[in-house]
TrEMBL record:
<dbReference type="InterPro" id="IPR032466">
    <property type="entry name" value="Metal_Hydrolase"/>
</dbReference>
<dbReference type="InterPro" id="IPR011059">
    <property type="entry name" value="Metal-dep_hydrolase_composite"/>
</dbReference>
<keyword id="KW-0378">Hydrolase</keyword>
<dbReference type="Pfam" id="PF01979">
    <property type="entry name" value="Amidohydro_1"/>
</dbReference>
<dbReference type="GO" id="GO:0004151">
    <property type="term" value="F:dihydroorotase activity"/>
</dbReference>
<comment type="similarity">
    <text>Belongs to the metallo-dependent hydrolases superfamily. DHOase family. Class I DHOase subfamily.</text>
</comment>
<feature type="domain" description="Amidohydrolase-related">
    <location>
        <begin position="51"/>
        <end position="423"/>
    </location>
</feature>
<dbReference type="InterPro" id="IPR050138">
    <property type="entry name" value="DHOase/Allantoinase_Hydrolase"/>
</dbReference>
<dbReference type="InterPro" id="IPR002195">
    <property type="entry name" value="Dihydroorotase_CS"/>
</dbReference>
<protein>
    <submittedName>
        <fullName>Dihydroorotase</fullName>
        <ecNumber>3.5.2.3</ecNumber>
    </submittedName>
</protein>
<keyword id="KW-0479">Metal-binding</keyword>
<dbReference type="InterPro" id="IPR006680">
    <property type="entry name" value="Amidohydro-rel"/>
</dbReference>
<comment type="function">
    <text>Catalyzes the reversible cyclization of carbamoyl aspartate to dihydroorotate.</text>
</comment>
Amino acid sequence: MQRLIVNARLVNEGREFEGDLRIRDGRIEAIGSGLSAREGETVTDAAGAWLLPGMIDDQVHFREPGLTAKGDIASESAAAVAGGLTSFMDMPNTRPPTLDAQALADKYAMAAGRAWGNYGFYLGASNDNLDAVRTLDPKTAPGIKVFMGASTGNMLVDDPEVLDGIFREAPTPIITHCEDTPTIDALQAEYVARYGEDIPPECHPDIRSREACLKSTELAIALARRHGTRLHVLHISTADELRLFEAGPIEGKRITAETCVHFLHFARPDYARLGHQIKCNPAIKDEADREALIRAVAEDVIDVLATDHAPHTWDEKQNPYTRAPSGLPLVQYALVSALEHVHAGRFDVARVVHKFAHAPALLFDVAERGFLREGYWADLVLVRQDDPFTVRREDVLSKCGWSPFEGTTFRSRVAATFVNGELAWDGSGLVGAPRGQRLTFAR
Ligand code: DOR
């Protein structure tokens, strides 16, 4: 398959420039200007649209195996590709959880031929799988996920000796969910005593408190400093935690920070409208946190942008607070939601590309993806600016069938997504068949 994309605004490695891009045999053959079409080549006139490397989402819960009423690899990767996300790294809190090499191999087998995007799977840590952590082949997983706070699935690691061992011996980057569980349990007990199980949703950030986040993130950083671990702290949700991280380029950092699109979009006042739709762990906090996180992206304190896409069914979300699960579907509108900050003048499009494509590729040593470079795989997104659309429930591709963004108008839209050189999304529907490949890690 040969394709020539002409008249695009390419955005890559800090630059934005007019140009053309040729795809051949799944890869980017040439980037230039005035490239002329060859015989048999399909020509796409991008007419000024942004041409970006496909986003790499390093934090998704696609629910397979075992939780497939909420989502599965096929449905959620389709939603991701519709949103311009061409690679994903999936979390281990499935049923069974991904706690050893066999469970990891099973997941790769499940994804083959069914994933619309390229895929990697994390190994999970537990209080009793230190051997599996120590002996992990670093080419088989982007990293090791440590729940240093309990969330969906029962994967809390709270044995101090085991935690120390994981940080000492992990052969890959460690990614952490940081929320101190005893702090949260004590706060939740207070709220249950006051309200019973029907706690108002806007109390979620007071139960899943900023103190809980700060305490756990401090512990993770202390452990990483003690052992020289490559640590990546996921989904930072508070201004308070930001002072624990250094500003600067991701290259050379041993400790990095991530936030997610929903923490840049929603804040406490939104609970009144959306209730449990935006209940997630860690919790969406105050307007001041949202502001500080946007600034931290602009100032390189936050290194990576991701989704924490975590679908639950609509029915599950209707339960009272104590039984309503945490997590929200995000992949389909994640990129356009991040681009709203570009339209609002908070940072430029090159920064979105850096945080959502280049940075995860660098952090996890992803081979030949995440950049517009000749010879790299042609994972690409065409985005039309100033082409507003409003999210409707009937357009949601996630299996759960709802979105916290319903009714929201975004100013840009994903006009096309290419995965491994093939058109997978044409702006209104999926095209062809799933063509995701297993991610490889150059380490
Ligand atoms: O809100 C969340 N949902 N946070 C997590 O850590 C897990 C996730 C899920 O799997 O539902």
